[in-house]
Design brief:
The complex is a heterodimer. Chain A is an alpha+beta fold. Chain A is built from nine helices and 13 strands. In chain A, the strands form three sheets. A six-stranded mixed beta sheet of chain A has the order 1-3-2-6-5-4. In chain A, strands 8-10-11-13-12 form a five-stranded mixed beta sheet, covered by helices on one side. Chain B is of the alpha/beta class. In chain B, the strands form four sheets. A five-stranded parallel beta sheet of chain B has the order 2-1-3-6-7, with helices on both faces. Chain B has eight helices and 13 strands. In chain B, α2 packs parallel to α3 and α6 (152-163) packs across α8. The two termini of chain B are 27 Å apart. In chain B, β4 (53-54) and β5 (57-58) form a beta hairpin. The chains are: A alpha+beta, B alpha/beta.
Chain lengths: 446, 220
């Protein structure tokens, strides 16, 4: 990409050049017309003047035409030539620079003609009373030279001024672009941690939108990093607590002489390891989802098959019964299978954790076919906690002992990744919680 | 010692209850700020082990309220946040000590003994009454240099009486020290423990104040 300064410089230079050349062309046209007009008038005047000076009786047939001498000091003075002809076609007199050949035809008025290889413009006056025809001619080559000299006179200073003008434009651009350079320097000098906004107050109006946009970006990046820091802090807390539990229980198991206390501690260690394993798995899934490193091709998948797979991986759920609507096996939904599995697995685990003994967990399509619903018969979520349950590490008052506080956050992120949305509510009829995943925009095909 | 443990993680909380029990203390468990407030309002504790991140708020809030209300119960903060600024905030908020998770159970017990001892105005780690010496750290007792084997509960009763020699401790107070909330209190347990103690350390060391309770006879 060509630099802004160079680009502006070229544009300005070309634009200035074009305007200048147009002006020259225009001046050329106007001057030419004016010069033609003035010279034609002079030609006409000269012809009449010569005619009026011709004596009434010219020699009837001179042996030689009279040559009227004329100074030839400068190029322009040789411009005019004059011939005096008798009406019957004899050359009576001519000026010194004029050719012997007749300059023009017999018609009076203006005419143009090539004589001896030179183009002439001639004015002819017939004087019947005196019996003479006066022709005054002008070399067109000289006229062109006159105009060319005029234009050259205009162009020479221009060519001298052009480099100066270019320099001036270059320097002015440099000065004009300095605020941009200042911002660049300030940004270059920053380290990666510095997310302070750029001072846009003194920036020119053209740069302010850029500065504002950068500041908005900084704010977003800062917010994202803040959230990351919070999540890391939370993750540290959430991991250290089970580690503290493990250590304490291990010390008890080592120190206790009582068999019952030791076995109790060992059982606690076992369940703590299970819980911590799940927490680590959840954190990894969330990190992968956040990083966007999970992308699989979109394929038609059967939700029923996925739910069966999840149940097989998660192990038996002796306390509750899982009912899957047969339609979930029949219809296929085009989506990213791996990410959808993550979302459904967390909904499944959530439902199982909160399900009471003997409860039923049911999976089915929504009546409009736009989403999939899972319902449990657990205690549900208090209305004041409902807005918070998707927050990372939020564990409400009715927490399950194995909950990581990450499940619904994962469902939320995962479903958003594949263009689905998560809706949570307590069941309107009876006890339990209802989670619905909806495809945004598209119906699940029948 | 009767200790209130405010910790929401069930496995860690269980570990603290059992572990502090092994160290000769009785721990009561609560898992939220709200429950901690009710427990503190209803009972006297020798020390509080307080987790900072609780489901319904920060343990620091509970601590601030305690200190604001003039409660001088020693508090040990437990937290997974180990930034220096967090520790400073905790200690400035009125905490007596601070431990980062994960911690050593024995160190926790020692720190609790230390803050409880300071709160009771004693500097020496050993409890002494006459020819009796109690070491709360090793849960051992000695009389005239000879070690006396004591059960965990006998030790708890004796250490409560020896913390403030001459002060009368009611049967209820002793029961509070011996049993957590969910433990069944046997009706004559205190009498049985005092009877057994007298058999081990001599009949005159523990004096019965009829209708009020028990106290250590002043030395000399």
């Amino acid at each position: 990409m060509i630099s802004l300064r160079r680009r502006l410089f070229l544009i300005l230079l070309v634009a200035t050049g074009v305007i200048w050349l147009s002006a020259v062309a225009w001046i050329y046209q106007v001057s030419r017309a004016e010069v033609e007009h003035v010279l034609d008038t002079r030609l006409q005047e000269a012809a009449r003047m010569v005619d009026s000076l011709v004596a009434g009786h010219m020699p009837a047939s001179p042996a030689e035409p009279v040559v009227i001498p004329g100074g030839e000091t400068s190029s322009y003075e040789r411009q005019l030539s004059c011939q005096i002809w008798s009406l019957d076609g004899r050359l009576i007199a001519r000026s010194s620079g004029a050719p012997d050949e007749q300059l023009a035809g017999p018609a009076p008025g203006f005419s143009e003609r090539v004589v001896d290889g030179e183009r002439w413009r001639i004015f002819t006056v017939d004087d019947a009373a005196k019996g003479v025809r006066v022709m005054v001619g002008d070399r067109l080559g000289l006229r062109d030279q006159l105009i060319a000299d005029l234009i050259k006179g205009l162009l020479w200073p221009t060519l001298l001024v052009a480099p100066l003008l270019g320099l001036l434009i270059w320097v002015s651009l440099g000065r004009g672009l300095r605020p941009l350079g200042d911002i660049t320097t300030a940004l270059k000098a920053r380290d990666a941690e510095d997310m302070r906004p750029i001072d846009a107050g003194h920036a020119p109006a053209e740069i302010r939108p850029l500065a504002d946009a950068l500041n908005t970006l900084f704010a977003k990046v800062e917010a994202a990093r803040q959230q990351e820091r919070e999540v890391t802090a939370f993750a540290a807390h959430e991991l250290k607590t089970p580690l503290a539990g493990l250590k304490t229980q291990t010390q008890i198991a080592l120190a206790a002489s009582d068999e019952e206390i030791r076995n109790g501690a060992l059982r606690q260690i076992l369940s703590s390891v299970d819980r911590t394993t799940r927490l680590v798995r959840q954190l990894l899934v969330l990190a992968k989802l956040d990083a966007g490193s999970l992308t699989m091709p979109v394929t038609p998948v059967s939700l029923g098959d996925i739910i069966d797979e999840i149940c097989a991986i998660s192990g038996p759920t002796p306390a509750c019964r899982i009912v899957v609507d047969p339609l979930l096996y029949d219809r296929r939904v085009p989506t990213d299978r791996e990410i959808l599995t993550i979302a459904l697995r967390n909904l499944h685990e959530n439902a199982v954790q909160h399900s009471p003994a003997g409860g039923t967990i049911s999976w089915r399509f929504t009546p409009d076919g736009f989403g999939v619903v899972v319902e449990d018969e657990g205690p549900g979520v208090d209305a004041d906690e409902l807005p918070h349950v998707r927050q990372r590490f939020y564990r409400g008052r009715s927490r399950s002992p194995v909950g990581s506080g990450l499940g619904l956050a994962i469902v939320e992120v995962a479903s958003a990744r594949i263009g689905w949305s998560l809706h949570l509510e307590n069941r309107a009829e009876g006890r339990g919680f209802r989670a619905e995943l909806r495809r945004v925009g598209n119906a699940i095909p029948a | 010692m009767r200790i209130l443990v405010v910790e929401d993680d069930p496995i860690l909380a269980d570990g603290l209850k059992v572990g502090l029990g092994l160290a000769g203390a009785t721990a009561d468990l609560v898992g939220s700020c709200g429950d901690a407030r009710s427990a503190l309002a209803a009972h006297d504790f020798d020390a509080v082990v307080l987790d900072v991140m609780l489901p319904d708020g920060s343990g620091l809030e509970v601590l601030k309220e305690m200190r604001g209300a003039g409660d001088r119960t020693p508090v040990l903060l437990l937290t997974a946040l180990d930034e220096v600024s967090d520790r400073i905030r905790g200690l400035d908020g009125g905490a007596d000590d601070y431990l980062s998770k994960p911690f050593d159970l024995d160190e926790l017990a020692a720190r609790i003994r230390a803050i409880a001892r300071r709160a009771s105005g004693r500097a020496a780690p050993l409890l002494v009454a006459g020819d009796l010496v109690l070491d709360p750290a090793s849960m051992s007792a000695a009389q005239d240099g000879a070690e006396i084997p004591l059960s965990r509960r006998e030790f708890a009763v004796l250490s409560l009486l020896m913390e403030r020699p001459g002060i009368i401790r009611s049967k209820g107070e002793i029961e509070d020290r011996l049993y957590g909330w969910h433990e069944e209190v046997e009706s004559n347990a205190v009498e049985v423990h005092v009877h057994n103690l007298r058999a081990k350390i001599g009949r005159t060391a523990i004096e019965t104040v009829r209708g009020l309770g028990y106290r250590m006879r002043d030395a000399g």
